[in-house]
Structures are given as C-alpha cells and as structure tokens.
C-alpha cells in the first residue's frame, strides 16, 4: 500500500468480479437439469482485470454501453461489493448515488430516510441536523417530507437521494446516471452542484452516457467494454473512442455546447 | 466520523472501502444501529392500528392458551405451584428467542433496498432484530415482576444472576442464529420457512408448559441431553429468577424443580452460545460477498 503516492484517491488494481447466472433455482428445476445433464449455473465476468488509479481531485467520466460493468465498478469503489480478485483501495469518505437512486427504505418517511441515509454515509446526528434544512431546500420536496418515500415519484426519490449525497462532506463523490430522472431545472441544479463538488477538490466519479455533460464535468474518461478498460485518457479522445464503438445517436458529436442538449442527452 | 472538522483527505489512509470488522464494526457505529432499531420497531407494525400492542397481544394469547389448555385442562397446573408464573417466565425467554430468530432470519432480505445500495456492516440487520426483540422483553418483564410481587416474591442474588444469564444466553445465541440464517435466507428463501418450523419445536422443547420434574421423571437418565439445549437452560434460569421465589418454600422448589448446578449450566450454555456466535460470524464473513448480487 505504501507504494501509492499521497495524493492517490482510488486504486483499482487488477480487479475481477464474476456474477453467477442462475438457470435453475427450485428443487424441481434442479432435478430436471440434473437428469437432462444441463449446466446448473454459468458465470460471467462483469469486471475483467480492471486496473487504474485516480488522483485526489480528478474527475473521471466513466462511460460504456449498458452492461459494460460501470455500476459494478461503482459498487466496488463504494464498498457495497468486494472484488473476487485484485484490490480496491480508497482514501477518505465516499458518498454518492449507486444505480440511479439512493438506498432509501420505502416504508420510512423522507425525513427518517434522510437521517438514516446520512448515518449510513457516516454522518453524526448533529451533523445531519445542521445540514437538514440545506438538504431539504435542495431536494425541493416540500410537504412530502413526512410521507413514506415509497409514495414518492421517481423524480422526488432521486432528488432527495442526490440532496443527501451532495451534502455529505465526502472526499470521493460517485454519481451513477444521477440525471436520468428529474426535470430540467433540477438537472441544471445537479450539474451546478457537481461542478461545485469538483471545484472543491473532491474526486468525482461520474457515470454518464451524455458526451456533452462528461465533456463539461470531467478531465479524464474511462471507457469500459465488456468489463475491460477499453480506453483511459483524455475526455475528447475517450468520447471519440466510444463513438467508434456504438452508433447511438444520443452521443452525436453535435450535441455539445448547448445546455439543453447536454442535459437532454443524459438519458 | 467526527463532527468537528473533517480530517484532511491526505491524512487518511488508503483502505479497502468494503473493509468491515463484523460485529465489532456494528457496535462502533451505535448511532446508525440506534436508527436501524427505531426503524425496525416502526416498520414491524407498519400500517397496523394497534401497532406496538401486537407485541404484547401475541405472547399474552399464547400464555392464556398454555395456561388454560395445558394448565387447567390437561392438569399441568397441579404439578407446579403458581403455574401461571412458571409459564410466563418461560414464555418471556422463548418469545425473545423465537422473535429474534424469526425476524433476524428475514432481516437482510427485508432490508434489501439498503443492503444493495449502501455500504454498511450487514451484521447491523440481524443485531438490530435482536435488539428490537430485547426492547419488547422490557414490558413483559414488568408484567412478570408485578405478578411476582403480588404473590410475595422477593429478589435474591442467585436468582438475579440466573435471570441475567438467561437473557445473556438468548441474546448471544439469538444473534448467532440470526446472523447464520439471515445469510442463508438470501441464498434460499426456504430458510425463513424452515426457521418458523424450528421455532415451533422450541416452545415444546423447554420446560415452560410442563415442569422440569416431568422431564426428570419420564426421561430419567437422559436429562443431560435435554439440558444441552441452551434455551431450556435459559427458561430454567428465568424460572429460578422469578418463579421459585413465589412458591411457598423457595428453597425446596429450587431443589426439587431445578436441575443441579443450574448456574454452572447457565455459564456453560452462555459459553457454548458464544462459540456458536464466533462460528456464525466466520460463516457470515465468508458468504457476505455474495449477498448484494443474490438479493
């Protein structure tokens, strides 16, 4: 561990994570499969020998097609999952949103979830109380605050989750397609907040399909392809690289510049 | 985790984000644990009108069934003085254990929204289930205490030690089994059904609705096997704490109705439960990796 420089924020070293595809789970299915001599399970590598390091304060745009391993990588960096082999190391407190949304409990009210979520992210009771008004102001959920979050619209849900995550004093901020839901004014607000986070010297890990917003937010792009690092380097080259791979019209090179376009493309 | 002044990031070490030190990690994050316990209490009776009252209605109805059917109809009451207190003291232990075991087994699956998206020690959930059940023990103990005082009971040192041992055994063993079965339940939901069947045996495998003397009489020579069940020891210890003191001659009752070396047996049961807890933690740590993807 000592051989990493002091300003290293995230180390991902030769990380592999395999998932099991389960064909047969019930007693009946298993016995039929055994009789017919079929495979009981199959595994695939969601991440396959992935390595990179991130310096404190860098903002990384993590790109790739659906199913290329972006969310899995984020879960490993967040500590929700452990790699099967290789090492993941991080420095400091981590906050963020994983797989479009926060870990909220549907039965609890917005208020209770804010406290619970903040506690999971390592905030104390006083710290949460101090920031509570800011969080609520940011989320703009008004009197829904005391309703169970299970009844929230997907936009409200995401707004509250994002609001908690950005108000934690984190050193690493993870954002997984945060802007996928939420209306335009809120997306704009999120972008501004994320720029603020980036400018405050925190490490930003931003998953997005929108080339324009990655271009605006990030200073480095990592492209994942079937669980491998396909590209790691400058933003423009990364976007160009990705373009090569998919013909997704949403990533059209002409969508840069205009804010509306940039947000709209983030689906 | 400090409130005042965020430690500069360059001062902090590079660590594995998933690093967890199991149960120790749970108790170092007491504030989070407290929130989870509170959440669990409110969630258990979500949408019900009587709410928390259900946690008293359930053991009380069980108590009346046992007291009436077993005590009056089948005639067990004749074999043990103050039969109602005999049953209720046992029921507190059994109910605490059964509730911890059942709710603990379901705890991780029930909290999957959190488990899948937040990094927190997953041991939190079974431990929180145990603490919620412990929280329900309080008022039951008060009811028992009042009943005991009415029948002229006075506390003694051995009895109180026995009572604490009883609660300790259930806390440790309940947490251990909750840990073990909560992971198992992630892989196969069959385990929660199996646990409800298992807990049925618990009610009849302890000297609660029948006195220990009956066991000593019918299974003479095999009582050691019967007493190897830590919950049976827990029930006897709890009865030693409250029930024996309410009888006409507590010394004689303790001699006749309790197995010999009861406290020693209790300490051994607690030690055994601690070993199960260590094993459960080791198994949990091994299986934990696969939890998020299997939920």
From TrEMBL, chain A:
Superkingdom, natural source: Bacteria
UniProt keyword list: ATP-binding, Nucleotide-binding, Transport
Gene Ontology annotations for the cellular component aspect, listed alphabetically: membrane
Pfam family, one: ABC_tran
Domain ABC transporter residues, every copy: 21-251
GO molecular-function terms, A-Z: ABC-type transporter activity; ATP binding; ATP hydrolysis activity
Keyword Transport: yes
Keyword ATP-binding on entry: yes
InterPro entries per UniProt: AAA+_ATPase (IPR003593), ABC_transporter-like_ATP-bd (IPR003439), ABC_transporter-like_CS (IPR017871), ABC_transpr_TagH-like (IPR015860), Bact_Polysacc_Export_ATP-bd (IPR050683), P-loop_NTPase (IPR027417)
Protein family (similarity comment): Belongs to the ABC transporter superfamily.
The name this protein goes by in its record: ABC-2 type transport system ATP-binding protein
Organism expressing this protein natively: Nocardioides psychrotolerans
Top-level taxonomy: Bacteria, Bacillati, Actinomycetota, Actinomycetes, Propionibacteriales
From TrEMBL, chain B:
InterPro entries: ABC2_TM
GO cellular component, one term: plasma membrane
GO biological process entries: lipopolysaccharide transport
Source organism superkingdom: Bacteria
Subcellular location: Cell inner membrane
Annotated ranges, domain ABC-2 type transporter transmembrane: 32-220
The keyword Membrane is annotated on this UniProt entry: yes
GO molecular function, one term: ABC-type transporter activity
Bilayer-spanning residue ranges: 49-71, 83-104, 125-153, 159-181, 193-212, 262-284
Protein topology in the membrane: Multi-pass membrane protein
Keywords noted in UniProt: Cell membrane, Membrane, Transmembrane, Transmembrane helix, Transport
Family in the record: Belongs to the ABC-2 integral membrane protein family.
PANTHER family xrefs: INNER MEMBRANE TRANSPORT PERMEASE (PTHR30413), TRANSPORT PERMEASE PROTEIN (PTHR30413:SF8)
Annotated protein name in UniProt: ABC-2 type transport system permease protein
Organism: Nocardioides psychrotolerans
């Amino acid at each position: 561990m000592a051989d990493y420089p002091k300003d290293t924020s995230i180390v991902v070293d030769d990380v592999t994570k395999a998932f099991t595809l389960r064909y047969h789970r019930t007693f009946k299915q298993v016995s039929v499969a055994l009789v017919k001599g079929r495979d009981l399970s199959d595994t695939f590598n969601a991440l396959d020998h992935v390595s990179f390091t991130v310096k404190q304060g860098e903002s990384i745009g993590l790109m790739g097609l659906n199913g290329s391993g972006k969310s899995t990588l984020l879960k490993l960096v967040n500590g929700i999952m452990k790699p099967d082999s290789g090492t993941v190391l991080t420095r400091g407190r981590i906050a963020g949103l994983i797989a479009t949304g926060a870990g909220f409990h549907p039965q609890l009210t917005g208020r209770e979830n804010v406290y619970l979520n903040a506690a999971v992210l390592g905030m104390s009771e006083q710290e949460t109380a101090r920031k509570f008004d800011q969080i609520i102001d940011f989320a703009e959920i008004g009197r829904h605050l005391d309703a169970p979050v299970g009844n929230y619209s997907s936009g409200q849900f995401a707004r509250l989750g994002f609001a908690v995550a950005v108000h934690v004093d984190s050193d690493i901020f993870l954002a997984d397609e945060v802007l996928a839901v939420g209306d335009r004014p809120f997306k704009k607000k999120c972008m501004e907040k994320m720029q603020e986070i980036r400018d405050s010297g925190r490490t930003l890990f931003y998953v997005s399909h929108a080339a324009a917003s990655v271009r605006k937010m990030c200073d480095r792009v990592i492209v994942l392809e079937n669980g491998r690092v396909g590209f790691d380097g400058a933003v423009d080259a990364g976007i160009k690289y990705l373009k090569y791979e998919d013909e997704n019209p949403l990533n059209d090179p002409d969508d840069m510049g205009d804010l509306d376009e940039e947000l709209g493309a983030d689906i | 985790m400090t409130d005042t002044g965020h430690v500069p990031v360059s001062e902090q070490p590079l660590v594995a984000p998933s690093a967890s030190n199991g149960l120790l990690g749970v108790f170092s994050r007491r504030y989070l644990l407290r929130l989870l316990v509170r959440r669990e209490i409110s969630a258990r009776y979500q949408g019900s009108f009587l709410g928390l009252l259900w946690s008293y209605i359930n053991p009380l109805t069980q108590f009346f069934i046992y007291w009436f059917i077993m005590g009056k109809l089948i005639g067990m009451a004749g074999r043990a003085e103050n039969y109602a207190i005999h049953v209720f003291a046992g029921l507190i232990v059994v109910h605490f254990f059964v509730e911890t075991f059942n709710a603990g087994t379901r705890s991780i699956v029930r909290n999957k929204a959190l488990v899948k998206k937040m990094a927190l020690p997953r041991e939190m959930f079974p431990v929180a289930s145990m603490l919620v059940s412990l929280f329900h023990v309080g008022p039951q103990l008060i009811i028992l205490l009042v009943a005991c005082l009415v029948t002229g009971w006075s506390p003694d040192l051995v009895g109180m030690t026995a009572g604490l041992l009883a609660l300790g055994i259930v806390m440790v063993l309940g947490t251990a089994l909750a840990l073990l079965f909560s992971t198992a339940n992630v892989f196969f939901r069959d385990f929660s059904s199996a646990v409800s069947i298992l807990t049925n045996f618990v009610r009849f495998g302890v000297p609660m609705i029948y006195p220990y003397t009956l066991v000593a009489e019918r299974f003479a020579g095999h009582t050691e096997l019967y007493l190897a069940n830590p919950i049976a020891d827990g029930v006897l210890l709890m009865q030693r704490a409250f029930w024996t003191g309410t009888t006409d001659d507590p010394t004689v009752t303790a001699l006749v109705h309790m197995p010999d070396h009861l406290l020693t047996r209790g300490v051994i049961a607690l030690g055994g439960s601690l070993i199960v807890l260590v094993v459960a933690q080791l198994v949990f740590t091994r299986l934990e990796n696969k939890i998020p993807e299997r939920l």
